[in-house]
Prior knowledge:
The chain has helices at 87-92, 94-111, 115-121, 132-144, 184-204, 220-229, 234-249, 269-272, 278-292, and strands at residues 14-21, 31-41, 44-53, 58-66, 72-75, 125-129, 146-150, 156-160, 171-175, 213-216. It is built from nine helices and ten strands. Helix 2 crosses helix 7 (234-249) and helix 5 packs parallel to helix 6. The relative contact order is 0.12. By secondary structure, it is α+β, with helices and mostly antiparallel strands. A hairpin with a 5-residue loop joins strand 7 and strand 8. The longest helix is centred in the middle third of the chain and has 21 residues, at 184-204.
Amino acid sequence: MSRAQLQFFVLIIIYSYNVNFVGMVLPGDDLKVNLRHIGMREGNIVVQVETANDRGEKVLQGTAEIAQPTTVYVFTGQGSQEQGMGMDLYNSSLAARAVWDGADAHLLAVYGFSIIEIVKDNPKQKTIHFGGIKGQAIRQRYMDMSYDAMDRDGNVKTLPLFADIDARTPKYTFSHPNGLLFATQFAQIALVVTEKAAFEDMRMKGFVQKDCAFAGHSLGEYSALASIADVLHISALVDVVFYRGITMQRAVERDSENRSNYAMCAVNPSRISPTFSDAALREVVDMISTSSGSLLEIVNYNVEVRRSK
């Protein structure tokens, strides 16, 4: 088939259009049509249409809303945090700023810390003071937080998350050797607020499709549900995530610098070598665990790798 014989067919779905004739089209006129992308509306492209004759006179003008391929919005999990994330959008987008400011005001009033400060500065320590009526209410909030644990006999007990805070505690200090942005309870808040803020900025600009598909990986499930399903107000979102994060942070023993003997990494067998399979990875993990006498296990399978022959 020669190049001249090639034919391309493109299916365009136009949701709506509005056209007005603003001039006369005379017999024999040559017409020039100009299409310009001028905006977005619920994920659809808004196109401006203008037609002019060979004398430069505009004869038609209008707009059309054109459907785009389905977009899936995927929200990331913990581990992608970095100092200053989301702050460029905070400074340039009113929608993003509203999300950050709403989260920050709630966290300051209820828990005594600013997530914006932690994201911007990544301090290694933050002390919450419990003086005055507001401070006492914050302290009580920490004292009321609890979790269920099972002892060796299988009995479930409810324990305080902050056992070192009581009615006479004047202050409490959070710390992390790499900065509080890398402490689980603050990292998780920072991530969900960053994602929620970015999504609201896209929604304001008309980028978000109606009835779109969405997904979230681990912590990202909360961002997805709060952003698209709109099931959590920003204050409820940061409450749940802070509670989740501090429970995970307290789940293992830590030293005076908040370090534990446990860590986690993501492994993709196909990036090690084309012949390194999932079964080979499991064999390596078992071998290291046996020879070292330490706990080493695969705890989650995110993607099943399939190789074509």
